[in-house]
Each structure stands twice: as C-alpha cells, then as structure tokens.
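From: lab user (bench 3)
To: helpdesk
Subject: output format question, protein + nicotinamide-adenine-dinucleotide

Hello, I'm new to running complex predictions and I'm not sure whether the block I got back is the full result or only part of it. Here's what I submitted:
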Amino acid sequence: MPAQDNLNPHANAHLQGPLFQNALTTINEAAKLINCDPNILERLQQPRRCVTVSVPVRMDDGSVKCFTGYRVQYNSTLGPYKGGIRYHQNVDLAEVVGLAALMTFKNSVLGIPLGGAKGGICVDPTKLSRTEKQNLTRRYTSEIAPFVGPTKDIPAPDVGTDPQTMAWFMDTYSQEQGGYAQPGVVTGKPVEIGGSLGRNHATGLGVIYTCERAMELKGKSMQGAKIVIQGFGNVGSFAAKFAAERGSRIIAVSDVSGGYFNGDGLNVPEMMAYVKENKSLKGYTKAQPISNAELLELECDALLPCALEGQIDVHNAEKIKAKMIVEGANGPVSAAATKILDKRGVYIVPDVIANGGGVIVSYFEWVQDIMSFFWDEHDVDAKLKGVILKAFDNVHKFKEEKNVDMRSAALAVSIQRLEKAMLLRGLYPR
Ligand code: NAD
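Helpdesk reply: Thanks, we reran it on our side. This is the complete output you should expect:
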C-alpha cells in the first residue's frame, strides 16, 4: 500500500491539546520500557469514540441556550468505559480526550475491570440556578444515552458535578429505559439511591494506604511521622484525618485561604469542623500562617499535594525537603520535576495510584448496584486497601527491577496490562 502522507492535518485537531500531548509523551516513553508491540501502541494513541452533542436548555428567564457537551470513550478492552463528567467553562473536546486517556491508564494500573472515558460540558456551573443545572444534566444525559449504560459506559462526578448531578443523570436514564431504576448507570450517587458507603472518604483513605506502604518500604511508620498537606478539601482533609488517626503529626495544611503551621501537630478534627462551618480555613487562628511556597518546602517525612496540578516543577523541585511525595491531586508534580526529585532520592507515589481510591470505590459501587447487595463501610475500606496496595506493590516491583521512577513504572505496568488484553482480543475485523 502507498504511504498515507496526504491526509488532512486538521482531521485530528482534537488530539493536539496540551494535556493529551503530554500524556502521549509519557505513554511513548513508558512503552519503550516494556517493548510494547508497535501495533498496540498505534491503537493506544487515539480515542475509540468522541461524541459531541448540543444541549439546549430552557433558562430561568424563558430563553433557550445551547451548550456543547462531550463524551469521549477512549478504550474498553478491559471492561465498560468509566470516567467522570466535568462542568467547567474551559472544557473542550481536546481536554476531554486527554482526561479520557488518563482514566484508561489509571484503571489499567489499578487492575480494575474497566476501560477509560470522560465527559464534560462547556459551561460555568456557578452561573446556573439549580433548575438550570438540572435541565442541563437531564438533556445532556438524554443526548448521550445511546452510548452509556451499566454494561457500556458508567459516568461519575468530576469538577463542577456532584452526587445530586449523578442522581438527576440516573433518574433521566432510568425514565428513558421504561421507567425502571438503573442505578448502575452512574457512580458517586447518594447512598439512598444506590451509592456506596465509604465513597466520600475513599480518595483520602487511599492516599494514606499508599503513604503507609511507602513508609514501610523505607523502614518507617506513620506513627510519629511529620506530614504536610496542601489542600484541605475532600482529598486533603480525609488524608489528614486518616494520617492523624495513625499517630502522624500533621504539621501544616493549606487551602485557598493560605497555609497553617504547628510544629507540634495540628488538631485535624477541629479544623474539619471549622471548614464545615466556614467553608474554608480562612480566619482559623490556632496555627501559624505560612505561604504556599513555604508549606511545600517544609522539612517532613511525607508531603501530600492534594489541591491542584502543577505545584512542583523545575523552579522549586530542588527546594523540596520532603522525604517522599504522595500525589493526592492529579498532576501536582511535573514530569521534569519528577526526574529531579527522583535523582535526589525523593520517593514519589504517582497520582494514578495514590488517588486511585475514588475510582476503586466507584467500581465497588457499580458492582454493588449490579448485585443489589450493599456492603458495610468497613468492608468497602478493607476491599479498597486490598486493591490499591496490590497495584502499588506491582508498580514498586517493576520500579525496582527496571530501576526507573514510580511514575514511569506505573505507566509501563498499565500499558503492559492493556497490551496483553488487546493482543488476546485481537483486531476486529482481522
Ligand atoms: P476539593 O475542591 O474538595 O478541594 C480542593 C482543596 O484545594 C480545597 O481545600 C481548596 O481550598 C484547596 N486549594 C485550592 N487552591 C489552592 C491553592 N492555591 N493553594 C492551596 N490550596 C488550594 O477537591 P478534591 O476533590 O479534594 O480534589 C483535589 C484534587 O484531587 C484534584 O486535583 C482532583 O482532581 C484530585 N482527585 C480527587 C478525587 C476525589 O475523589 N475527590 C479523586 C481523584 C483525584
């Protein structure tokens, strides 16, 4: 066959976004570590299906506004597609493609039987009334309904969406399926309609399970360890709680209002109660105020960045004094900073494993919905521990064997699992 070199360069514009291009660089580097089959690698460089929908919504003033929504299904070799739905003004197809790819590699390295997907609507949800948000969610659900379902693609909450959004999604889908309840179509639902106990704290707990295992590998214990946490939202506050319960000293935390330091250890339950009442730590006086930069550079046994992406890069990587970093947030340490920190002996538990607790318990929620049999919280936490530590140990073993950093090891293990499954299933049609 002649070479395919006269193709329209704009055909793949949705594959040119920075998030996806960055993911591709890491994927290609990791693929070399396992000598990945080039035909498999070729297929892993593109999403399987990108759905773009127009979502007309009746606004409170009686007018109709059309929003643009997406659902990208990246790869379903390992099982039904799984990934969140984001409502944000920056959402576009290229971003959703990047996020769907990350879900594919995360689910694979975690060893759960799910593929990767992501969805979103380009909208500023803070400017919508509750009714408008409900109308938007119901019409978006209806538009993508042919592509989702408990055996096809199972969305979940992400930035700008929450358990209530999932409840509306589940109700709309169920009404369109003859009115029969279909709880398994989404996860992250309220417990009353098929959500899972333990989902709310799952990501923070997973961060601490992996931190504890990394400490063990260094011959250390959580008991008495000095911990610093950036971000005190869902992930950060529960990570702080579970670390404190293990006897660690949480010497600093921060949120959007600033950083809070106490060398003897902060009172985590009191701070959580303060945030519940005041929405943030603004005005909390029982700690010394510090800046975000100071917090990141504190000497500690473990630094847990649980807020935003891009917090540690080439500019501050040399200044980090933590002995290990456990990535509660997605992408807090850049690829270049990872290399610098790795050289300096700082152990990094990468985001795809460290914050995997959320999607693992989402997987449990889906299983419980299918069985219509619900587990108690203790059971959920114990099963989470089993799954996340198995993934951690697999990746650590690969790291030791190949002498690479944990991030490269995680991607390589992930691609290896996908490669095996894709080769077994083969190409349809031949
Ligand atoms: P959240 O909104 O509940 O909390 C975010 C926290 O970060 C808040 O305390 C906020 O005040 C703080 N923050 C914002 N800007 C800050 C700044 N400049 N400096 C310091 N703190 C700042 O969000 P979350 O659910 O806890 O998610 C946090 C991160 O974890 C995100 O990267 C998210 O993608 C990732 N994550 C979350 C889950 C989950 O289940 N919630 C799962 C996987 C990954």
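A quick orientation on your result: The longest helix spans residues 377-402. Let us know if anything else is unclear.
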